[in-house]
Amino acid sequence: MADTANKARRQMAVRIFSETRKHWAQQNWYQRFEEIIVVVLSIIVAIVILVAVLNLVLTLYNMLRFSILDASHPAAFQAVFGMIMIVIIALEFNHTILGQLERGLGVVHVRAVVLIALLAVLRKFIVTEIGEADADLLFALSASTIALGAVYWAIRQQDHTMRSRQPEGE
User: Which stretches are transmembrane (predicted)?
Assistant: First the structure.
């Protein structure tokens, strides 16, 4: 299964870069600049993802080796899930960046930015020790989650409405 996913990613990357080469001559200097920046950012985020996964694996290995990862240490579970959320956020961020190349759009979709922000706030909830957290922090995180969720819902509704108004074939 991992082989199939890797093969699909490689094929997508080859397709994106071949499309970029094909359209390069028709682009103005700023569009070329954006594409270069997107590629560089994607490479940087991919490196960050690899380092985060390596850190996660090493941390898990050490926790298992020293018997720290058990039900009597909830802080260890919080740390592990916090690291997993970092990887998920970075993967979503990289997917958003690569989507810019694939779709040929110059602007990051607001929906993707809101989703990444929502994931970051939820990660903070996961790593926060609720019993020791300040009430103001919990209120701020809750309000942020509700606000980001409402914005995400509104954007999805608007996208759905716009798609349903488009005539077939566009």
Answer: 36-63, 75-93, 105-125, 137-155
pTM for this predicted structure: 0.67
Q: 103 and 115, same structural domain?
A: no
More confident residue, 19 or 38: 38
Q: Is the distance from CB of 124 to CB of 140 less than 8 angstroms?
A: no
Q: Is the pLDDT higher at 38 or at 24?
A: 38
Q: pLDDT tens digits for 86-120?
A: 999 999 888 888 777 666 554 457 888 888 899 89
Cβ(129)–Cβ(75) under 8 Å? Answer: yes
pLDDT at 170: 52
Which among 165, 164, 162, 38 has a CA at the least distance from the CA of 111? Answer: 162
Domain count, the chain: 2
Asked if 63 and 80 count as a contact pair (C-beta separation under 8 A), the reply is yes
